[in-house]
Specification:
mainly alpha
């Protein structure tokens, strides 16, 4: 994939995650999506990369959110 395709994929996946989870930080989501993309970019079968990126990014966001302490009132 060229840089334009990569950016389009990252933006599309980020937008899908934000649409389903509007409370998630866009910066955090975009970073997780880009990191997941980089891990999968060398794969031979490219059909499912956006789906795999979305799932991996969302799992990472959930793990990071769970690791943060909850502020008590």
């Amino acid at each position: 994939m060229d840089d334009a395709e990569k950016q389009d994929t990252i933006e599309a996946v980020t937008a899908r995650i934000i649409a389903r989870h509007p409370d998630a930080s866009r910066t955090l989501v975009a970073r997780a999506v880009a990191e997941e993309y980089d891990q999968l970019a060398s794969g031979r079968i490219r059909t499912y990369i956006p789906t795999l990126i979305e799932r991996g990014a969302w799992n990472r966001i959930n793990r990071e959110s769970a690791a943060r302490p909850v502020d008590e009132p």
